[in-house]
Amino acid sequence: MVKRTSQQRYIDLIKQTFYFDTPDFTVSNDELNFYGVELMPLIEQYGTPLRLTYLPKISENIRRARSHFGEAMKKLNYDAEYVYCYCTKSSHFSFIMEEVLKTGAHLETSSTFDIAIIKKLHQKELLSKDKYIVCNGFKRETYTNEIKSLWQDGFQNCIAVLDNRKEITAYENLDIEKMQIGLRIATEEEPNFSFYTSRLGIRYNDVVDFYKKHVATNPKFKLSLLHFFVNSGIRDTVYFWSEFNKFVRAYCDLKKICPELHILDIGGGLPIKNSLGFEYDYEYMTEAIIANIQEVCEQEGVPVPTIFSEFGSFTVGESGAMIFSVMAQKQQNDRELWYMIDGSFITHLPDTWGMGYRFITMAINNWDKEYQQVHVGGITCDSMDYYDSESHVSKLMLPKFTRGTEQYVGFFHTGAYQESLGGYGGIQHCLIPNSQHVIINRDAQGNVTTKLFRKEQTAEQVLNILGY
Ligand SMILES: Cc1ncc(COP(=O)(O)O)c(C=O)c1O
Questions:
Q1: Cα–Cα distances in angstroms (integers) from residue 366 to residues 31, 114, 171, in the given order
Q2: Which of 57, 325, 342, 459 is the least crowded, having the fewest Cβ atoms under 10 Å away?
Q3: Where is the Orn/DAP/Arg decarboxylase 2 N-terminal domain (predicted)?
Q4: 31-34, strands of its sheet edge to edge
Q5: 56: closest CA among 96, 88, 83, 19?
Q6: Protein residue with least CA distance to atom 10, ligand 1
Q7: Which of 86, 87, 264 to mutate to test the pocket of ligand 1 (most atoms within 8 A of CB)?
Q8: What does the domain layout of the chain look like in residue ranges?
Q9: For 6-55+319-466, CATH number?
Q10: CA 268 – ligand 1 centroid, Å
């Protein structure tokens, strides 16, 4: 009999490839824990496919960002505030919004129904009327009407961020004295993009002229905020810094003729861990952002602005996980072994299918078993419904297992965008149902509590949508 050496075990592969354990992941009894929560007992209790949300991670990340910005501002004697807004589109669930609001965060919205959510949260006394509500997006009349209704209800820190020159006309008949507005600046895309300038926002060259003609001359409006968002996120690249610099200069140009302007909104895009090998220096990047703004403002003789951010993925991404069981193994040729899961990447993790996004992927159990290269297959008929690489290597390794034993696989930090993009609760490709969804929390004593938020979608619910 061939003796198994330690190099062949899955646990050794992970420990030799990465710094492991990590604060997020540990292994005990050859099974994986996520933020100290044992996953196998959850699988035994609820079954798979299983979507998880670990709520405490949300407030932890909001505190982390505030602390990085706060520290950097203190170090550099930056004489203005930092305001954390949550980008609601990354996850609109009530339990997420409630967790976010507990931290005192403000909100950024993108469409009409967002405002109904805001009204609901206000009714439940979870959101007060002085919160900043930064309203982004190219707006239909329903959305501008909802924004106006917030103003009429006394939400005096609701800021409609104009996406185009025409939008301002929608607010002209609003019966209030002064409405706060913002302007979104259209950024240039990265050189490898298929177009040059983002379709979102107003062109750099038009901003000052637009302000002079349409805002400065109209006593109803007060321009408070300038907004910017770089698609590829906040990265230490020449492209990001060159766009950022242009943006801060545009702020200074406007500030010189618009004394009321005082908020610089740096948008979203703070990255999250999508691999065990992920490295990002949050302290360095936040300090560089603050230093950059301060330097340009000093050169231009303009006071430094209040800084807003609208982090979506950073707020909720790391709170989520999706667990599947491997239903069968299929050896389709000498080299390609498929692990067929009880779900679909299109339904459950659509970013992996739509844009090749990679999440942290690990076995939940059998860490003492040998590993092998596998392709993970979803159960729709779509040939692209598969996953077979990690962000750092073009291979995916999982434990070997034999008939009669169970193998579970987890995708982690999946908390942002996957539900809305996957059409949660609607109809999905091949009518693969949405999975059950469990919320994990910790009580004041640090004990783990779990709650079933939603059961797996039923045939009746799906047929109802389809009109049967
Ligand atoms: C205007 C705006 N703000 C914030 C965000 C949030 O970005 P992220 O989830 O990368 O933080 C987005 C995402 O598309 C956005 O379009």
A1: 7, 43, 60
A2: 459
A3: 71-316
A4: 25-28, 31-34, 37-38
A5: 96
A6: 269
A7: 87
A8: 6-55+319-466, 78-311
A9: 2.40.37.10
A10: 4
CA dist 19 and 21 (Å) reads 6
Q: Give me the helices (H) in 301-399, please.
A: 313-316, 345-348, 350-354
Q: In a 3-state reduction of DSSP, which class is residue 120?
A: helix
Q: How would you classify residue 37: left for phi > 0, otherwise alpha for psi between -120 and 50, otherwise beta? A: beta
Shared fold status for 6-55+319-466 and 78-311: no
Q: Measure 405 CA to ligand 1 centroid, in angstroms.
A: 42
Q: Which CATH architecture has domain 78-311?
A: Alpha-Beta Barrel (3.20)
- Choose one of 183, 310, 315, 316 to mutate for the ligand 1 pocket test, by most ligand atoms within 8 angstroms of C-beta: 310
| pLDDT tens digits, one per residue of 83-126 | 999 999 999 999 999 999 999 999 999 999 999 999 999 999 99
The pLDDT score that the predictor gives to residue 1 is 47
Q: What is the pLDDT of residues 188-201, one digit of tens each?
A: 877 777 778 888 88
CA angle 438, 316, 107 (to 5 degrees): 120
Residue carrying the six token digits 């996004």: 357
Phi-psi region of 36 (alpha: psi -120 to 50; beta: other; left: phi over 0): left
Q: What is the 252 CA–ligand 1 centroid distance (Å)?
A: 24
Residue ranges lining ligand 1, Cβ < 6 Å: 87, 90, 108, 136, 229, 233, 267-270, 310-314, 416
